[in-house]
Amino acid sequence: MEIVEVPSIHEHPLLPVTRFSREHRECNVCGFFGYIYGGYCCNELECESMFHKECVESLSEIKHTTHPDHPLKLVLNGESSLCSRCEFPFENGYTCSICDFKLDFRCAKGPAPLLFLEKSNLHEHQLEFFVGWLSWKGNKECKECGDRGFHGFRWYGCHQCGTLFHGECAEFFPEAKHTSHPQHTLKQLTFKEAPDYADKKCLLCEEEFDQQHPKIHHCDVCNFSICRTCMKSAPPVRVESPTTHEHQLHLVPRRIDFTCNACGTLGDRSPYFCLQCNFMIHRQCIDLPRVININRHNHRISYTRRLGHGEWKCKICRKKVDGFYRAYTCLKCPSFVVHSLCATRKDVWDMIEREGILEEEEIAPYEMIDANTIKHFSHDHNLQINNDGHGRIQPENIVCEACVFHILSEPFYSCNQCSFILHKKCANHPRKKRHMRNNTPFLLLADSLDASCDLCKQHFTGFRYQSGPYVALDVRCAAILDTLEHGSHQHPLYYYSTFDWKPCSRCRKNGAFLFRCDECDYILDGKCALLPKKVMRNRYDDHLLSLSFGDKNVSGDYWCEACETKVNPKEWFYTCNDCGTILHISCVVGDFSYIMPGSHITTWRVDDVVSNTSICRRVCYMCNSRCKLPSVLKLSDAEVDVYLCSFKCHASLFR
């Protein structure tokens, strides 16, 4: 894997690639926003910068038709300047060392825009080129497409009548040629002007045409339609990518049904094709990475040209993988197979090519001192294993520092010098792991700061897994895999994230991170799916309470021992299997159930979470009822003791 050091352009080494961006990207040198077809990408975690090939390999000195008298020298990451041609501010571009002439990359790379457009079919008056519209006195909408754009757009404006046109609308009006359709010109149309028979997607990139696309470009002779982005930046008609195929690949810009040789899925338009080998490939499958890490598996996976005979199922989408096409496999786990497109999704892959990079050694969470003693990274003292209580429930105040759950009947480690206690299973949580909630690794932190879990949406203290600055998981949710066997449903539930929020089948609240059944419409959000199956005994019962998913055969109502109101037996509730005690879920698990009593919690202010397990329960200041839950919020700056039972009451108090 060849790495290029270009310190003047980017602080990290760059990897030359021939792959196409799957979405609109911005070149970090010239600022162009659209599809990037090959070039260079940053191979550092969470950077994801992309660069045009010509921008990285820019000549240090050029001659340009707009300034024929002197050569122009390349300046990168310099002070902000105004382009002498378009008057747009830039930091990367070319300057003349003799006079004050400057060009940004866009004006230097492409043909310079005409400063004036004479009377034409576009407009009856002369139009003048300029950038931005803050100083423009007339209408700030493009007359051709009706879109306002933004301040950095290039425009043509008429000073006589105040009419405005995007530079691109003027450039492509009324029709223009395109490299993917050289036989005819493409007419510029609005979405509403497009004929009914025209395709509803761009023939090249498959983007759907809708009201958000101000213009499409159409050939009515061939029924050929493409979007504005592809009109501005045409995909190459020929591609050489040795990592993809040994021969040159040619674009076939037309509707054609095919099976992609790289991913094994069907396509219906514009593949790249090798005539010698009858090889066809999606544009997004060109130059797929060879070795990668994904968030659904602990080991690296490798790009494999052929799986061979067998029944293979993708571990992400759970659909069949055809063994005669390329896919990703794990060398350590032969049954682990993933579709090429599933493995390289942005929410799955960390966007780093791992070929040629040594695999990191796993750091153990603790050091074994002897058979019964460990030195855990989170604590200054040695911890002793305690198996004496195995099978016997521990007192209510024995709480694990990592998960903030009571020690039930599990073995645990304890400190002889202080009150620090860890479940044995919590002591074994890895220092670094991958999880489906984010594409970058999670690091285990033991600072016990309060946070909000990104999966179950509960506030918590204790240990947390952190990925980047914004995504945190409590250790309980971090241990969950993407496949969940749940007692409330007969089929497995699978994790998925969506921008189209769906309601949870239990609480009916909409969510984006859900567990869904492939067989039916059953969905659980993270909070409901990950409710604890067993909870510590409390003042209402001396035994463990178990989560029940309802009894459909019962008529009438149950009675909650905590709030003394009815419980619908067909809904979820907690019950004691020994005594028959029934409690609402909301009377057992509350907003502060995952927070260690005595901790500070930060919202827009700092308050304290305190225990509420005494016989005399605290009274909530807002709802004036005795708090049923074992933890409540206490205001830190009140002159008298003020207790609140939930975040809702806390918000109401300061509304």
UniProtKB/TrEMBL annotation:
Organism expressing this protein natively: Arabidopsis thaliana
GO molecular function: zinc ion binding
Record-annotated Zinc finger PHD-type domain positions: 26-87, 141-206, 259-318, 399-457, 503-564
Protein's UniProt name: Zinc finger PHD-type domain-containing protein
Record flagged with keyword Glycoprotein: no
Keyword Zinc recorded: yes
Keywords, comma-separated and alphabetical: Metal-binding, Repeat, Zinc, Zinc-finger
